[in-house]
Amino acid sequence: MSLPRSFYERDTVAVARDLLGCLLIHQEKAGTAAGRIVEVEAYLRDDPAAHSYRGMTERNRAMFGPAGHAYVYRIYGLHTCVNVVTGAEGTGEAVLIRALEPVAGIGLMQARRGRDDLISLANGPGKLTEALGITIDLDGASLSCGPLWIDPPTTPVEEIVQTTRVGITKAADLPLRFYLKGSRYLSRR
DNA sequence: GTCCTGATCCTCT
DNA sequence: GAGGATCAGGACG
């Protein structure tokens, strides 16, 4: 059973923290692949680093849509990143999924990534979308009915570490990155 | 391990 | 026309 819409309609930082330990699952003809979320970042309203900061555009439209949907975008012309839209519709807040611990469909993930070591299969936002086969087609897709969804944790969730976000130049001092302490599958420490 | 670079392209200025 | 919420590979120590 996947997380209900009400899970995503809460405060974005609370959703970000609660997503840690959950399972991100993508199912398609090639098979099903899933990973345990070990690292996320929150992007808020009035946050200069957020894509929504300068208002709605064609690219970030999904970020202003209803909670519990995916916001998928392409970065640097060649990589894809996936977010979960949070909060009330129209606020433009979301949580970026940054790293996964491979759990299921590992052979499929290895084939898609073209490498075998489990650590680097999904330890980065561009890597995990490649490993799970998440493409720009899923931008705006519901996480309640479709090939992409999130399940609650199946094992105890470790201690959460809160720190600054990765790879941004604006609002770089805000502590809006969260990860599971001690995980070997982080994009960085 | 750290640092640097090239790849690659669409969006917004 | 500039600049990314990135990745991989190479040089170097």
3D structure, described in words:
With 189 residues, the protein is of the alpha+beta class. It has a single domain (5-180), classed as 3-methyladenine DNA Glycosylase, Chain A (Roll), CATH 3.10.300. Helices cover 15% and strands 30% of the residues. The protein contains four helices and eight strands; from the N terminus they run ααβββββααβββ. It has helices at residues 5-8, 12-19, 106-113, 125-132; strands at 23-28, 31-43, 70-75, 79-86, 93-104, 148-151, 160-163, 177-180. Strands 1, 2, 3, 4, 5, 6, 7 and 8 form an eight-stranded antiparallel β-sheet that branches. Strand 1 (23-28) and strand 2 (31-43) form a beta hairpin. Helix 3 (106-113) crosses helix 4 (125-132). The model has no long low-confidence stretch (mean pLDDT 97). It binds a DNA duplex (13 and 13 nucleotides) through strand 3, strand 4 and helix 4.
Summarize the structure.
The protein has one domain: Methylpurine-DNA glycosylase (MPG) (3-methyladenine DNA Glycosylase, Chain A), CATH 3.10.300.
